Amino acid sequence: MRILVVEDEAAIAAAIAKALAGAGYVVDHADDGEDAWFRADTDEPDAMILDLGLPRLDGLSVLRRLRAGGSRLPVIVLTARGNWMERVEGIDAGADDYIPKPFQMEELLARLAGVLRRTGGHAASTISLGDLVLELRRRSVTIAGQPVDLSALEFRALRYLAHHRGRVVSQGELSSHVYETDREPDSNAVEVLVARLRRKIGAETIVTRRGQGYLLEG
């Protein structure tokens, strides 16, 4: 899943990006509000981590523009500790959650996972599809209780399809949410990736809708 990190302090942005990448997310970065607004609109991330004190366009203005345009992008706001008014304004502007600075990366990861679960319609940190169970927090997969060995890329793809189960996901959409921005996958990379997944979790689990994409049925 692709996360847009909007933070103008380079050290903080790098630390967040490293933690997210280690947790299996694809990370994009913007260091000012105008770029953040543009990327949120064009790159279609799965969630945004948004600092409020940004150059060119402040974080609250970015959030208000997104919501005014009808965007339902999940947003976690980063605020200065003790500034309760900023937190209230952020929630009123449409933030899904907030974290005061300084913060622990484990808390950020947990809150991000929670926001993604809620927006995907999942109450718990597991997704069950019959005998197939994804443990999102531990990034593990089992079938009938037996562990399935997936690569990081395979898990990203399966997690994205599971979050959107019951909906056809096109090849382009799946590619943009599982591959790093600086990697240009081969034209058949997604087909190969899905084929590997099918060998590990069962050929019937992921349905191909010819000319449309892939469907993980709930």
UniProtKB/TrEMBL annotation:
For the modification 4-aspartylphosphate, the affected residues are 51
> Signal peptide span per the entry?
none
Cite the Response regulatory domain residue spans from the record: 2-116
Which InterPro entries does this entry report, sorted A to Z? CheY-like_superfamily (IPR011006), OmpR/PhoB-type_DNA-bd (IPR001867), Sig_transdc_resp-reg_receiver (IPR001789), WalR-like (IPR039420), WH-like_DNA-bd_sf (IPR036388)
The domain of life for this entry's organism is Bacteria
Instruction: Give residue ranges for domain OmpR/PhoB-type.
Output: 124-218
Q: Which UniProt keywords apply?
A: DNA-binding, Phosphoprotein, Transcription, Transcription regulation, Two-component regulatory system
For this chain's UniProt record, which GO biological process terms are given?
A: regulation of DNA-templated transcription
The entry's protein name is: Response regulator transcription factor
UniProt-listed Gene3D superfamilies: 3.40.50.2300, 6.10.250.690, Winged helix-like DNA-binding domain superfamily/Winged helix DNA-binding domain
DNA-binding region in chain numbering = 124-218
Q: Does the keyword Transcription regulation apply?
A: yes
Provenance organism: Methylobrevis albus
Q: What cellular component terms from Gene Ontology apply here?
A: cytosol; protein-DNA complex
